[in-house]
Amino acid sequence: MGPLGALAAYLLSIGIVFRDTILSGFDLGFGDRTDAIIEISILEHWRSVLLGAARWNQPFYFHPYTDTLGYNDGYLLSGVVYSGWRLWFDPFVADTMTALTYKSVGFVAILWLVRGVLRWSWGAAILIATLATIANNMFLQSIHAQIQTLALLPIVAGLAIKAARAETSDQGRTYRWAIAAAAMMGLWLVTSFYFAWFTIYFSIAFVACWLWVTGRWRSAELARLFHAHRRTAAVFVGVFVLAAIPFVLVYAPKMLETGGHGFVLSYTVQPTDLVNTGERNLLWGWLVRALAGMVHTVTPAGSRLEKAWLGGEHEAGFPLLLFALTCAAAYRLVRRRGDTGFARVFALAIVISWALTLRIWQVSPWILVHYLVPAASGLRVVLRYQLFLVLPVLLLVGTVFRHRLTRLWRRRPVLAAGLIALLILEQINLAQPAQLSRKAQFAALDAVPAPPTECHAFYVVVVRPGEPIYVDRRLNALYPHNVDAMFLAERWRLPTLNGFSTFNPPDWNVASPEAADYDARVMAYARKHRLAGLCRLDMRSPAPWRRVTTI
Predict the structure, then answer these.
(1) Contact, 394 vs 100, CB < 8 A?
(2) DSSP states of 493-534 as a string?
(3) What is the mean pLDDT of the chain?
């Protein structure tokens, strides 16, 4: 084992995750007709920013509202990576290459964390990096591009550990590591709020467990602790506050405007979600299919009850072998009363922070987190915390079992190889989250003529005549025309009234474009905001573009 073994494992991992993309000749990318187009539109926004053609917090959709980047994840770091790839590739291939970049950075960063920072063996580092890269739940949820930013987690963790180690020996290094970690967290917040917030949430849980286990939660002990580390804390907090300024500028006004998300019980973690690997998991899919069969005996497919139990965001669980090892590892460490070591604190932080996400029927302790922890109301899908936990869980299992695996490899290599193979195979899922066809998107979007020069803004009725209904009538009324408008607006750098996001402007009313009152609603909006030079796009018409009068 060594660098060559790591390279082989990396190539295997990338081949597993990107198999559909590679086999399609890079035609297929992660995501679908809507979420992926929204994400690419925001990435195109950052390209425009870097080219000096747009304000950093003002995409070309939701016109004439300002600072509209805060209605969705900001994708800042993703946009920088994407813009680099756009020097050579079109938007869809560049988006795929951005995901590939994150996966590659994540793999290397985990090797650095485990081998370089924690100083574990090459074998442990390679196995953990491989399992984290091909993780079943992250693969299934890769239709959400924000998930790829979890590649930043091992970097932040490594920087934090190095800062803590240097605290008593080299103050200069401590400051440098702390500055780097704080800056990374600030940039992560404006790139992918969910996973940056989950990192902060887990860190709070870890610190709270450490204070409790070591008995330093008492006021006198806390005061001494703060005094001893006040300079490092001041450096970290100061840099973090500065780095988080873009996040605050973008999201604070929108949080005040929208109020964030209400508490969504159905997106907390029910017991079956802990091991829900999706129906097409190579080894454990049969269990989920059996669960689906039981659910369908009491409720029809597509019902609200079914959606509360199966599919979608609920497919965020861990394969059974890894979950069993996690439980065993946590139990071994947590039960060591009197142990104040890092490993036990780490296990407690995982167990407690994970337990708070659970729900039993209609009760979940997460409601306390939602209302008491700052910015928690910005989260809707708490289930995604299980994606964050992939790396911590693997590190927990490695903490307890890596030496035993090494001994097993020496004594019974065939059995050890079989166990490793089983850990890898149970992560493989035969589903196809890469659903976005580059050729199909270009065939539809390239058919749209450029807007006339007299158009200063536009709205969309239909871009793809004859397109099948997207999922159902409700979603079809919200998504297709709006996301196409977002992409076209960024392509032409021309403002559009349309758009659809996690949150929408207060008087947003551009759903149901084929309804009889759609144009009237748009005209009322245009008059309210005194918009001039407005054009209408409807690809069903022989002349798709038409200038409209708003006065």
Answers:
(1) no
(2) T--BS----SS--TT-----TTSTTHHHHHHHHHHHTT--SE
(3) 93
Q: Does residue 24 sit in helix, strand or coil?
A: coil
* Alpha carbon distances (Å) from 150 to 96, 200, 251: 16, 13, 21
Contact criterion met (CB below 8 Å) for 134 and 428: yes
Which among 308, 305, 317 has a CA at the least distance from the CA of 278? 317
Mean pLDDT of 278-304: 85
Structure confidence at residue 312 (pLDDT): 85
Q: What digits encode the pLDDT tens for the residues 444-464? A: 999 999 999 999 999 999 999
HSE-up (13 A, CA, CB side) for residue 53: 14
Cα angle 138, 141, 142 (rounded to 5 degrees) comes to 80
pLDDT in tens, 203-242: 999 999 999 998 888 888 888 888 788 888 899 999 999 9
Of the listed ranges 257-271, 372-386, 504-518, the least confidently predicted one is 257-271
CA distances (Å), 235 to each of 159, 167, 183, 240, 259, in order? 14, 12, 11, 8, 32
Q: 159-175 b/e with 16+ CB inside 10 Å = b?
A: bbbbbeebbeeeeeebb
pLDDT of 551 reads 66
Residues 324-344, mean pLDDT to the nearest whole number:
92
Residue 260: phi and psi, rounded to 5, are: 75, -165
Tokens 């996001």: give the residue.
Answer: 501
Cβ neighbours of residue 283 closer than 8 Å, sequence gap 6 or more: 319, 320, 422, 425, 426, 428
| 181 contacts 160 by C-beta, under 8 angstroms | yes
Tokens matching residue 54: 């747009």
Mean pLDDT value across residues 190-195: 95
pLDDT at 370: 92
Q: List all residues 6 or more positions away from 123 whose beta carbon is below 8 Å from its beta carbon.
A: 1, 5, 405, 406, 409
The label of the residue with tokens 């054009």 reads 535
Query: What are the tokens at 405?
Result: 């695996």
Which run of H or E residues covers position 422?
helix 413-425
Q: H-helix or E-strand containing 535? A: strand 534-538
